[in-house]
Amino acid sequence: TSVDKGGHKHFMAKEIAEQPSVLANSLGYYIKDGQVELPDGGIDFASIDRLTMVACGTAFYACLTAKYWFEQIARMPVEIDVASEFRYREPPISKGTAALFVSQSGETADTLAALRYCEGKADKILSVVNVPESSIARESDLALPILAGAEIGVASTKAFTCQLTVLAILAVKAAQDRGHMDAAQAAEALEKIKSVPALMNQALSLGERTNDVSKLLAEARDILFLGRGPMYALAHEGALKLKEISYIHAEAYASGELKHGPIALVDKHVPVIVMAPRDALFDKTISNMQEVMARGGKVLLITDKQGAKEAGDGVWETILMPEVDPFVAPILYAIPAQLIAYHTAVAKGTDVDQPRNLAKSVTVE
Ligand code: G6P
Q: SIS domain spans which residues (predicted)?
């Protein structure tokens, strides 16, 4: 079946707008009566000691986000790597390891090779894919579909938030299997995930605001993204999205690492985008933000109303997000990251859906 832009100027805009409804599909598929239900016999994380997650590009940042979830709520040791490194470093895979591969297309050559490396070594091979008939899905013991529907824009958007959603659900299942959550606590965590589509609709209404800010960002040569915890992963995804389609040089740093080098880059020409939902590390992130401002940096703060109040004066621009539980904040904060990249690219007049030098699916090494 052919896919059209549904009245949007670009596939990317359509795919950003679609997220609340496609996410609801994944939620309906995996959550039944307040409990996680996996297809094909699922997996029992009680018999798994550690998780190795491997992917490329945006899918890798979904793994980086999920590492925080699996470690925090399921107390599960997690190793992550980009597939092109993983496959050649020949990592020892000990008994009790589940290997999990995340891929929109299910055909990325390096990710597939990494999966094949784990065959016969890992106890269980899992994949989180958008294309259920893909090579990666077929070669996994358990393939978990993200149900995002066809993604046409080269820069991944709805596949990313659907990957995050499936991984968050999987982390809840792992927490429950490993005795770190009882059924009621799992149901409560799943309710938080189920609250995301409605919050996303609110965040999507920030389109105009991000459009205004993006006109300013389009003038920049370099842009930094900062975050802590799972927001560090989102900072990476925001920087990747921006460089992919606007061709502006963008880098992500862990907020606390700023003082160890990158702060030397800060001056009044470098916008610094701070992703700061009010989570356990909010105060620390804000103090790093103040270090940037003290050096004349232009801060674009993404937080909620109370967060903006606590951050005080002197911020260059603010994007006000809905209040959200910290557990699911990474899924919601993907929206402003995507909107900023999209509007900045549009302001610069680049080819949003087909950025230069990039391919939707990289099936050669
Ligand atoms: C390409 C795409 C990216 C994508 C990456 C991994 O580089 O341009 O958007 O994140 O491949 O693709 P996959 O299909 O494995 O998720």
A: 41-180, 213-355
Question: Does the beta carbon of 176 sit less than 6 angstroms from any atom of ligand 1?
Answer: no
Report pTM. 0.97
pLDDT at 148 over 50: yes
**Minimal-distance CA residue to ligand 1 atom 11:** 361
- Cα–ligand 1 centroid distance for 363 (angstroms): 10
Q: How confident is the model at residue 162 (pLDDT cuts 50, 70, 90)?
A: very high
The CB of 285 under 6 Å from ligand 1? The reply is: no
Does 241 qualify as catalytic in the annotation?
no
Q: Taking a C-beta distance cutoff of 8 angstroms, is the pair 162, 144 a contact?
A: no
CB of residue 56 inside a 6 A radius of ligand 1: yes
* Selected residue with higher pLDDT from 140 and 356: 140
For residues 349 and 277, give the distance between their C-alpha atoms in angstroms, rounded to a whole number: 31
Give the pLDDT confidence of 306-330 residue by residue, as tens digits: 999 999 999 999 999 999 999 999 9
As given in the structure block, the two tokens for residue 78 are 């997690």
SS3 letters across the chain:
CCCCCCCCCCHHHHHHHCHHHHHHHHHHHHEECCEECCCCCCCCHHHCCEEEEEECHHHHHHHHHHHHHHHHHHCCCEEEEEHHHHHHHCCCCCCCEEEEEEECCCCCHHHHHHHHHHCCCCCEEEEEECCCCCHHHHCCCEEEECCCCCCCCCCCCHHHHHHHHHHHHHHHHHHHHCCCCCHHHHHHHHHHHHCHHHHHHHHHCCHHHHHHHHHHHCCCCEEEEEECCHHHHHHHHHHHHHHHHHCCEEEEEEHHHHHHCHHHHCCCCCEEEEECCCCCCHHHHHHHHHHHHHCCCEEEEEEEHHHHHHHCCCCCEEEEECCCCHHHHHHHHHHHHHHHHHHHHHHHCCCCCCCCCCCCCCCCC
